[in-house]
Amino acid sequence: MKKRNYLILLIVILFVSCVTYDRPIAPEEIRTFEKIIEISNTTKDELYIKANEWFVNTFNSAESVIQFQDKEAGKIMGKYKFRIVVGHPVSLNAGMKSTISVDVKDNRAKIFIQGLTSDFGADLTNDLEFVEEARKVWNKMALSLEKSLNKEVEW
Question: pTM for the complete prediction?
């Protein structure tokens, strides 16, 4: 009985120490991602179509979906599910979701990414380690969009 009580006490102490561990907080300026992409000699309508194609080709998970589209406003928004690896020496492969917005105008587009929610619903937008890893994925997303928007369409 004593061994069991000590084991329970040890588990409680470990749990409390993990929960109260102070994780570094992400500075406000890195909690979101924004990039403006210049594409010369391209109309808003052409960019809207290319951005839509990019969303369809990029969002290939059932949990990554376009949630809002407005061609007149030149806006597409969706949720994107991705995975990041955090933690050293023990690593955690975490499923995350962010909101992605693409706005287009003649000759340019803007990608804006915000929010960082785990598969379990935890908001990790303030956690420095998670945000730094997510920004690597977000940057790749922006580069992928830029490549797609600059691609020449041939018939």
Answer: 0.81
In this predicted structure, what is the pLDDT of residue 48? Answer: 96
For tokens 């391209």, name the residue.
42
The rounded distance, in Å, linking the Cα atoms of 77 and 104 is 12
Side-chain half-sphere of 85: how many Cα atoms within 13 Å?
4
Report how far residue 105's alpha carbon sits from residue 46's, in angstroms, rounded to the nearest whole number. 10
Q: Are 35 and 110 in contact (CB under 8 A)?
A: yes
The residue length of the chain stands at 155
**CA 105 to chain CA mean position, Å:** 23
pLDDT at 19: 45
Q: Are 80 and 95 in contact (CB under 8 A)?
A: no
Domains in the chain, please, with CATH? 25-150 (3.30.530.80)
Asked if residues 139 and 33 have their Cβ atoms less than 8 Å apart, the reply is: yes
Tell me the C-alpha distance between 81 and 98, whole Å: 7
First-residue to last-residue Cα distance in the chain: 77
Q: Alpha-carbon distance 34 to 101, whole Å?
A: 9
